[in-house]
Design brief:
The complex is a heterodimer. Chain A contains 10 helices and 8 strands. By secondary structure, chain A is of the alpha/beta class. Chain A has an 8-stranded mixed beta sheet, with helices on both faces. In chain A, helix 4 packs parallel to helix 5 and helix 4 crosses helix 10. Chain A is globular and about 55 Å long. Chain B is α+β, with helices and mostly antiparallel strands. Chain B contains 2 helices and 4 strands, in the order βαβαββ. In chain B, strands 1-2-4-3 form a 4-stranded mixed beta sheet, with helices on one face. The chains are: A alpha/beta, B alpha+beta. At the A-B interface, helix 2 and helix 3 of A face helix 1 of B.
């Protein structure tokens, strides 16, 4: 494939980079990334991946845009209030870059659908806001050997980690079981500063781009913790757990489970 | 300089930075190691910046020559993938 004149201009700052070049840009255009959630994290992740020319972006969310989202969910706007988030996000990302095909899925992710949904994608990004989804996505990615870039935010703190099945830790190596319902507050209960998902989602987007390009080092066996009040980044080493129930030597989780037991559905 | 075999020529007259280097880089990416790229340009700054950037990217600059009042000719050998 040859670049059009528009593409030469649009991607010139990528092509100039030795780590990207024309070949890397073509990899980005051919890449398929699936984003879980079109909220605080999914907005900047999708926005920057679209800007970078990631050719196919799948995004799943069954919520509609609410006024309370707009303090941090930058894919949406006052004009898209009430619209399905995936439709609002698709319009935003495709307006930024018409090279990108955004596939919006207005469903709630479930153990019965996730495998088929992510099968054709190269990389999965978790921008979900609840533990059942986080564990469902982790287990599905490990079972299907899909790289997963996971992000989480609350109050003034954010976390990012990258799971490359077979090469490093998974989310369950870090936290084997979900915390009991109600122990960890949601953003809805505890609040979140508006720019935090921008920082964490941008870090996730960079992880995805590096995975596609095959350049640099990703957050394998590492949890990156950002404290916005102190303005600090901490890297915490996460050893691969040989006894991990999903990615260990003798896994007890060999198929997806019921993740919702004891949990109620909360909005973001 | 005439004894150097040129494998590909690009004419980027009329282009300014950074598109001068973008075009040159895309051209050399598609070539094999050992081959020589000839670049004809008329944007003076690029006669300095392209050789420097090519060297930064690990390629070998064989020739930088002003050929007339407006044009420069560069010869770059690809030595690195």
């Amino acid at each position: 494939m040859e670049f059009s004149e528009d593409q030469l201009q649009r991607y010139s700052r990528h092509i100039l980079l030795p780590e990207v070049g024309g070949k890397g840009q073509k990899k980005l255009l051919a890449a398929k990334v699936f984003i879980i959630g079109a909220g605080g994290l999914g907005s900047p992740v999708g926005y920057y991946l679209a800007a970078a020319g990631v050719g196919t972006i799948g995004i799943i969310d069954n919520d509609r845009v609410e006024m309370s989202n707009l303090q941090r969910q930058i894919a949406h706007s006052t004009k898209t209030l009430g619209m399905l988030k995936v439709e609002s996000a698709k319009a935003t990302f495709e307006a930024l870059n018409p090279d990108v095909n955004v596939i919006g899925i207005a469903e709630r992710l479930s153990k019965d659908t996730i495998m088929d949904l992510i099968r054709d994608y190269d990389i999965v990004v978790d921008g979900s806001d609840n533990f059942p989804t986080r564990y469902l996505v982790n287990d599905a990615c490990v079972l299907m050997k899909k790289p997963l870039v996971s992000g989480a935010i609350l109050k003034f703190e954010g976390q990012v980690t990258t799971v490359v099945p077979g090469e490093g830790h998974c989310y369950r190596c870090l936290f084997e079981e979900m915390p009991p319902a109600g122990l960890v507050p949601s953003c809805q209960e505890a609040g979140v500063i508006g720019a935090i998902p921008g920082v964490v989602g941008s870090l996730q987007a960079i992880e995805v781009l590096k995975l596609i390009l095959g350049k640099g080092e990703v957050l394998k066996n590492t949890l990156l913790i950002y404290d916005a009040l102190k303005t600090t980044f901490r890297r915490v080493k996460i050893p691969t757990n040989n006894e991990c129930p999903v990615c260990g030597e003798n896994p007890t989780i060999v198929e997806l489970q019921d993740y919702e037991v004891g949990y109620c559905r909360t909005a973001s | 300089m005439q004894d150097i075999k040129v494998d590909k020529t690009i004419n980027i007259k009329g282009l300014v930075c950074p598109y001068t280097f973008v075009k040159a880089k895309l051209a050399i990416e598609d070539m094999a190691v050992g081959e020589v790229l000839e670049i004809i340009l008329d944007y003076e700054e690029a006669s300095r910046s392209i050789p420097k950037s090519m060297e930064d990217h690990g390629q070998k600059v064989l020739c930088v020559e002003k050929t007339n009042d407006t044009d420069w000719l560069l010869l770059i050998r690809k030595v690195k993938e």
